[in-house]
UniProtKB/TrEMBL annotation, chain A:
Keywords: Cell membrane, Lipoprotein, Membrane, Transmembrane, Transmembrane helix. Residues 146-157, 416-433 have a biased composition (Gly residues). This is ABC-type transport system, involved in lipoprotein release, permease component. It comes from Actinacidiphila yanglinensis. PANTHER family: ABC TRANSPORTER PERMEASE YTRF, MEMBRANE COMPONENT OF TRANSPORTER-RELATED.
Automatic annotation (TrEMBL), chain B:
This is Putative ABC transport system ATP-binding protein. Keywords: ATP-binding, Nucleotide-binding, Transport. The lineage of its organism: Bacteria, Bacillati, Actinomycetota, Actinomycetes, Kitasatosporales. PANTHER family: ABC TRANSPORTER ABCH.1 (PTHR24220:SF86), IMPORT ATP-BINDING PROTEIN (PTHR24220). One of its GO terms (molecular function) is ATP binding. The keyword Nucleotide-binding applies. It comes from the Bacteria. Gene3D superfamilies: P-loop containing nucleotide triphosphate hydrolases. Pfam families: ABC_tran. GO terms for cellular component: membrane protein complex; plasma membrane.
Length: 491, 227
């Protein structure tokens, strides 16, 4: 009888039922869309952070480079022979990029610290390569300026030959790229983890002293590098063993090589620029951070949270829009939907006073009448929930299909490079540019809206909640009906 | 069956008190038929609701089979109604979305009768009022007289001790009225139940073996020589 009565009543009042269900559907659909877009924002932000950190890293330890003008940095010097006319000359300089170096022992110091699951070091380098040729000019004597001889100081004449040097000059090309020294004994952390090896292979522990490199796919494409190609840095030839493609499309470096090789190239034996740290418990990250700062003075410890707070640009705007406006809009629509559902159910009970009065006169207990009203409201809520889930999935699908591109800017205040300018800030071609680029990084990420099982469970919960709230409104009214009053009422 | 002593019912309408019943004393024996007549607003329906355990008096005693209904809890009153009292209303009060058989079944739901038994008893009750062919018809598909027959089947399916009818022919034409009255009187005689009927209809009142008249809350009872 319960289900027969319920089914027939819902069919009879299908318009009202549809209004209630649609109201709930709108609210629930909005919650699903906003929730999935928020998840998408988190994922996008995660991608941005991952591009800097790689996987499995909870924080980095660096030491900011000294401010420019303090005199502690040295500008690179290049020596070219101006007399070797027409001969191609090349010179490259390998410099530590963006940070001051730390001793390699810092890695083991941090690694031994409480609540630290692991620590690896890395070395950021920048290579500036200048190559080109000098061409000597030709001396041309003016007519009549000399009576004999043709050579200055050639004698025989009291006057020096008159003329000018024509032609000649220099044509040099400056090329800058980044190198990253990877601790090949532990590849579970560090920036290379945010890339996938799409060709060849990655390093192994046996590569510590090998002259091998992994190239970023974008850089490899630009420079026509492939597995087996050779890259020469400061006269040393390195073989490319793998091509890595960054997940976010923006790699941490152009070329990766074993840490020892990077230290040798930059004359920074036993030096690193960054320590990647993994905490044993995500709840202990701030404690670990404080202890590192305490144990190793002068360093900057940057956690994911610190880095996330520096993200700006359209990703940040959209994220705060989804978090603030989206969340409150969803809550407002849900509250409105719940209220409308409750009021409509209550009003439906008012229209059925005689019906419920009759049932009570026949001996139906208040509880049974209330359950009937609650049942109808719950089914209404579930219909609304189903529609809302469909609506929300459609919304999330649309966002994923449109896949709007958001740009994320990692502020220079972040301790990734400090933005204090790289060494030799005044060098031609914006020498410090590389460091600044690393510090204030702009990434484009495509937004998706993944719908999790948790979101669906939340939607079903909201549907049941909406139904229960509506049912409580109606059920409360129905339970308070006195059969005598109900039957006395003329409709 | 019923013993009423000094029953009063006072309603508050706005700022004034309305005495719907003023010191009613009445005895109704098992198997009696009592017709209650009176002008509109005289308290007929109020008295019927007291007798049907739908409402409590402001003062006085309403004994039903030795139990004072005025002192029973809501749950006990509900139980009394579900087991002992059948109601018939002027406007039939059928559930519009349930068919004839399901409407009759609603009277058996609170008694905890199993669904299969419910269906069988409802079908038999409808058969007894001449609607054996209309089990699956919705109220909207039945005439006024047929709807009232469904309501009568609903009132009788649980085999109550008392049948209370509030203007059962008020919404029916003359021919249908006679059919319904003949049906009710036949059932009363055959089943030996106590039948209390409220009506405006003087034709019905004249035929009544016992007639009670309620005017301004005061009751006068006339025993008919026809009994």
């Amino acid at each position: 009888m319960f289900f027969t009565y319920l089914r027939r009543e819902l069919r009879r009042r299908r318009k009202a039922a549809l209004v209630v269900a649609l109201g709930l559907a709108l609210g629930i659909g909005l919650v699903i869309t906003v929730d999935s877009v928020s998840s998408g924002m988190d994922q996008a932000q995660g991608k941005v952070l991952k591009s800097l950190y790689g996987l499995g890293t909870d924080m980095t330890v660096t030491k900011a480079a000294p401010a420019s003008g303090t005199g502690s940095t040295t500008r690179p010097k290049f020596d070219f022979d101006a007399n070797s006319s027409g001969t191609s000359q090349s010179s490259d300089r390998v410099m530590v990029q963006g940070f001051q170096t730390l001793s390699s022992s810092v890695v083991s110091t941090v690694g031994k610290q409480k609540d630290v699951a692991g620590a690896v070091g890395g070395l950021n380098l920048q290579v500036l390569k200048i190559n080109g040729t000098f061409t000597q000019g030709q001396f041309q004597q003016r007519q009549g300026s000399s009576s004999g001889g043709g050579f200055p100081g050639g004698g025989g004449s009291s006057s020096t030959p008159q003329g000018e040097v024509k032609g000649g000059g220099a044509q040099f090309d400056a090329n800058s790229y980044t190198l990253y020294g990877v601790d090949v004994s532990d590849l579970s952390m560090g920036p290379l983890t945010s890339s996938k090896i799409t060709s060849g292979s990655t390093f192994t522990a046996a590569d510590a002293n090998a002259k091998v490199m992994v190239a970023d796919s974008a850089y490899a494409k630009q420079n026509k590098l492939k597995v087996g190609s050779t890259v020469t840095v400061k006269g040393t030839k390195y073989k490319v063993i793998g091509i890595a493609t960054a997940d976010s499309g923006d790699a941490a470096a152009n070329l990766y090589l074993p840490l020892k090789q990077a230290q040798t190239l930059s004359s920074s034996a036993s030096k690193i620029t960054t320590v990647y740290v993994k905490a044993s418990d995500s709840q202990q990250i701030s404690t670990v951070k404080s202890e590192i700062q305490h144990n190793i003075s002068g360093t900057t410890v940057t956690t994911s949270a610190d880095l996330a707070s520096t993200v700006s640009g359209s990703l940040s705007t959209a994220s705060s829009l989804a978090t603030n406006v989206g969340k409150w809009l969803s809550i407002a629509v849900l509250i409105a939907a719940f209220l409308v559902a409750g009021l409509l159910t209550s009003s439906a009970v008012s229209r059925r006073v005689r019906e419920f009065g009759t049932l009570k006169a026949l001996g139906w207990k208040s509880g049974r009448v209330t359950r009937q009203v609650m049942g109808e409201a719950l089914v209404n809520g579930l219909i609304g929930g189903a529609l809302g889930i469909a609506l929300g999935l459609a919304g999330a699908f649309a966002v994923t299909e449109i896949s709007p591109t958001l740009s994320a800017q990692l502020g220079s205040s972040a301790s990734t490079g400090g933005g204090q300018g790289g060494p030799g800030g005044g060098a031609p071609g914006g020498f410090g540019g590389g460091a600044r680029q690393a510090a204030s990084k702009t990434l484009d990420v495509a937004l998706s809206a993944p719908v999790s099982v948790g979101t669906i469970v939340l939607a079903v919960g909201l549907a049941l909640g909406g139904g229960l709230i509506a049912g409580t409104f109606g059920g409360w009214r129905a339970s308070r009906l006195r059969p005598a009053d109900a039957l006395r009422r003329v409709e | 069956m019923y013993q009423l002593s000094g029953v009063t019912k006072r309603y508050r309408r706005g700022k004034t008190n309305v005495d719907a019943l003023r010191g009613i004393d009445l005895t109704i024996a098992d198997g009696d038929q009592l017709v209650i007549q009176g002008p509109t607003g005289g308290g007929k329906s109020t008295l019927l609701q007291m007798l049907g355990a739908l409402d409590r008096p402001t003062s006085g005693v309403i004994e039903f089979d030795g139990t004072d209904l005025a002192k029973l809890s809501e749950a006990r009153l509900t139980k009394v109604r579900s087991e002992n009292i059948g109601f018939i209303f002027q406007s039939f009060n059928l559930i519009p979305t349930l068919n004839a058989q399901e409407n009759v079944e609603t009277a058996l739901v609170p008694m905890g009768v199993r669904p299969a038994d419910r269906r069988a008893r409802a079908a038999a009750a409808l058969e007894s009022v001449g609607l054996g062919e209309r089990l699956t018809h919705l109220p909207s598909e039945l005439s006024g007289g047929q709807q009232q027959r469904v309501a009568i089947a609903r009132a009788l399916v649980k085999e109550p001790k008392v049948l209370l009818a509030d203007e059962p022919t008020g919404n029916l034409d003359e021919g249908t009225r006679d059919d319904i009255m003949a049906l009710l009187e036949g059932l009363w005689r055959d089943r030996g139940l106590t039948f209390i009927l409220v009506t405006h209809d003087s034709t019905i009142a004249k035929r009544a073996p016992r007639l009670a008249t309620l005017r301004k809350g005061t009751l006068t009872v006339r025993e008919s020589s026809r009994t």
